[in-house]
Structures are given as C-alpha cells and as structure tokens.
C-alpha cells in the first residue's frame, strides 16, 4: 500500500502504512530480551553451582562409603586363623593357657630371620592393633601421617587355602600359616607352622609312620591403615586413606610394603575398641572388672553344665575405649568389636562457603578453628564385630 492509495482511501491510517518496528519498539524489545537472557544465564549458573555441589557431596559420600567398605571387609576377617584357636580363647582348656603374648608386637618387624615364639604368639593372639602415633619401627611405612589420626593394624589368615579355587597359588618366600589336625602332632606340641616353610603338618588321617594328607596352608595377611596428608604427590593437599601390605619386597624380604592409596578425601581416622571384659560372678550378680590375666584354666559357674564361665569373656563388648596412645596386651586380645570414625572432606573448596562446624569422632573433637576453610565435611561412623574372636567366646548364658 502506498501514499496515493492512502490519499485515495482516507480510512487507511498512517500506522497501517508503516512497515517493521520503530526505534523505540526495537529498544524495548532488546531490553526485554536482555532481561530474559540475564535471567536464563543466572538460572543456568545457579543450576551449574548446585550441580557441582551435588557432585561434591555425592563424591564425598562415595569416598566415605568406599573407605568404610575397605576397612570393614578386612576387620570382619580379623582373627581368622584357619581353624586354630589360641589357648586363652579355648573354653575346653582346664589348665592355665600357654602362648599368651607378653608384649604388643611391632607391626613393621621384617621377617629377616624366624621370629621368636612370643612374637609369633602376639601376631596370632592380637588380630587388631590401634596406635595414635607411629607404631614400632614403622617410621618408613607410616610416613606423612595426618595429626590426630589413628593407625589401624588388621591381621588374619587368608580365608581360602593357597592354590584352592579362586585363591592365589603358593609363592615361595611368602609367610603362611598351617594348622595341624593330627592328634599325634597336637599331643607332641606342634599345633601350627607359622613361617616360610616347610609345611609338613597333616590332617586327621595321619599315622605314626608319617603318612596322611598334608594340611592346607593359608597366607598370612597384615594390613596397616592410616591417613596420609597427600594422595599421589607430596604436597598436593589431598588427605587420603592408605594401606600397607605385608609381602615380599623387591629384594625378596618379607616386610610391610609402601602404602597404596585406597580413598582420597579422608581427613581424619579414629578407632575405638570394644572390649569383652572378663567376668566374675558372685552372689548371682555379674560384675565386670579389669583383670585381663590368664593365670588359670576356664572356671565355670556350674562345672557340670559349663554354660557360664566366670573368668572369661562372653564375646559381647562391655565398653568402648580409645587407647591409641598405648593399648595393652590385655585390651587387644579382648577386643571383640570396633567403632570406626571417618571425617570425609570434599576434594575441592566451595566458593562462598566457610566451614564453621565442630566434628566429633568418638570422643575426639575437631574444632572449627582448626579447619577454617571452604571445604565441606561430614563424619561417618560404623561398628564392626570381630566374628572370629567374639564367636568362639559365645556360650549359652544361664538364666539370671
């Protein structure tokens, strides 16, 4: 439509003749578009921040779960000895038990020469050790340990015999445990072989001529857990749960190996021991004391029924303690459960966040002032039963 048409038809307005947008309309449309774009941008940025925080939280939870899984699966096997029961835990013994260790073993003592009988007894009798500092000669193994964290030592025999289906074959020079089921050997005082060989103990079909089936051997497992102040590179600032394994080193010596990273982002690690305190029964009242000595055989409340021992534990934890500064032999051989506490930290900081929380890990408080950064954290705790220790102490209790 043109001007002549407008003149010919006066009912056609000037606005109907205009094509496109005016400058004012264009500016208004541009402003509205910018507002919408800014709103969408802010929405996207907010969703991205939320998503990043969710990823951090999810990773933090997964890291803690993996750490608990690694430790828990090891702990529940602690004390498994391929059928061997230490004398002090054998409730069929009527004489004072033998082989009670006199000292807490050094977990980093290398097997350069055969260990002493007392040291071997300690390894078999003490499936769990906890230290708040660096234990024994572990200075080269437990390096760069985070302050206010524990060192956990877990011991047991491998749960499958060497060479069995889905179990590694025997390796020359490794440390194995072989348990005798031969009455002749047991009466002669040879209940086990705990060395690098030879392994000649036999099963129940043994005879005086030396015949019979050779008993299976089980690899000895000793793991040392602690929190290191870096993950892969010293100084990277990522605290990590690491584990050292007892095995052959490059020179063929049996010793604790360099620790390997299990889980990143674990900042604190604390362990409490659940103690099965020996019981004394008088006037029908069960009393708990602190006598951990084993200077006599098992005494029974009823020598005929033999259901309630009066000088042994019952497999149930009576109290939980943190004795990392110096756990005694008596405490360690009467440990039947663990409480494990972890403080998991995100691997990256959250902009605008300041950690002002205090964290409690089994009696240990990590104050906010000691942290004061932008990392998000959470405490995870779990309790694990030492089935192989507590299970062999269980007897049906007499009615009160």
Task: Describe what is shown at a glance.
Keywords: Membrane, Transmembrane, Transmembrane helix. The chain has 400 residues and is α+β, with helices and mostly antiparallel strands.
Summarize the helices and strands and which ones pair or pack.
Layout: H1 3-8, H2 14-17, H3 23-75, H4 117-125, E1 128-131, E2 151-157, E3 176-179, H5 183-187, E4 192-195, E5 217-228, E6 240-248, E7 254-256, E8 260-264, E9 266-275, E10 279-282, E11 285-288, E12 319-321, H6 329-333, E13 335-345, E14 359-361, E15 364-366, E16 377-385, H7 387-390
Antiparallel strand pairs: 1-2, 2-5, 3-4, 3-5, 5-6, 6-7, 6-8, 9-12, 9-13, 10-11, 13-16, 14-15
Give an account of the 3D structure.
The protein has 400 residues and is an alpha+beta fold. The chain has a domain at 50-153 and 223-391. The chain has helices spanning 3-8, 14-17, 23-75, 117-125, 183-187, 329-333, 387-390; strands at residues 128-131, 151-157, 176-179, 192-195, 217-228, 240-248, 254-256, 260-264, 266-275, 279-282, 285-288, 319-321, 335-345, 359-361, 364-366, 377-385. Strands 1, 2, 3, 4, 5, 6, 7 and 8 form an 8-stranded antiparallel sheet that branches. A 4-stranded antiparallel sheet has the order 12-9-13-16. InterPro entries: N_methyl_site, PilW. This is Pilus assembly protein PilW. The chain crosses the membrane at residues 20-45.
User: How far apart are the first and last residues' alpha carbons, in Å?
Assistant: 109 Å
State the helix count: 7
Shape: elongated
Radius of gyration: 33 Å
User: Which ranges are low-confidence, i.e. pLDDT below 50, for 5 or more consecutive residues?
Assistant: none
Mean pLDDT: 87
Major sheet description: 8 strands, antiparallel
The level of helicity is 10-25%
Structural class call reads alpha+beta
Number of strands: 16
Strand content: 15-25%
Q: What string, H for helix and E for strand, traces the elements in order?
A: HHHHEEEHEEEEEEEEEHEEEEH
């Amino acid at each position: 439509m043109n001007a002549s048409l407008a003149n010919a038809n006066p009912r056609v307005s000037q606005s109907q003749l205009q094509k496109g947008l005016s400058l004012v309309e264009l500016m208004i449309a541009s402003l509205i578009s910018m507002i919408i774009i800014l709103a969408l941008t802010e929405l996207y940025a907010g969703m991205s921040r939320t998503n990043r925080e969710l990823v951090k939280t999810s990773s933090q939870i997964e890291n803690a779960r993996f750490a608990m899984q690694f430790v828990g699966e090891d702990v529940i096997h602690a004390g498994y000895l391929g059928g061997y029961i230490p004398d002090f835990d054998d409730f069929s013994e009527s004489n004072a038990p033998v082989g009670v260790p006199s000292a807490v073993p050094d977990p980093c003592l290398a097997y350069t020469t055969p260990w002493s009988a007392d040291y071997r007894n300690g390894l078999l009798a003490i499936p769990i050790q906890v230290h708040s500092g660096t234990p024994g000669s572990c200075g080269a193994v437990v390096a760069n340990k985070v302050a206010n964290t524990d060192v956990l030592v877990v011991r047991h025999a491998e749960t499958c015999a060497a060479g069995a289906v889905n179990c590694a074959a025997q390796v020359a020079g490794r440390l194995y445990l072989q348990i005798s089921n031969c009455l002749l050997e047991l009466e002669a005082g040879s209940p086990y072989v705990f060395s690098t060989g030879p392994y000649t103990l036999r099963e129940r079909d043994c005879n005086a001529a030396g015949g019979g089936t050779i008993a299976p051997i089980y690899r000895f497992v000793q793991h040392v857990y602690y929190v290191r102040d870096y993950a892969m590179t010293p100084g990277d600032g990522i605290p990590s749960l690491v584990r050292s394994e007892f095995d052959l080193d490059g020179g063929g010596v049996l010793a604790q190996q360099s620790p390997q990273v299990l889980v990143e982002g674990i900042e604190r690690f604390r362990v409490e021991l659940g103690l099965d305190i020996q019981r004394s029964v008088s006037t029908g009242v069960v009393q708990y004391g602190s006598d951990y000595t084993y200077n006599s055989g098992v005494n029974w409340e009823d020598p005929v029924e033999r259901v309630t021992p009066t000088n042994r534990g019952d497999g149930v934890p009576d109290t939980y303690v943190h004795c990392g500064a110096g756990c005694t032999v008596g405490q360690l051989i009467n440990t039947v459960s663990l409480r494990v506490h972890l403080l998991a930290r995100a691997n990256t900081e959250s902009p605008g966040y300041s950690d002002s929380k205090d964290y409690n890990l089994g009696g240990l408080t990590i104050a906010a002032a000691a942290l004061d950064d932008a990392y998000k954290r959470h405490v995870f705790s779990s309790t694990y039963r030492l089935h192989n220790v507590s299970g062999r102490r269980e007897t049906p209790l007499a009615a009160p």
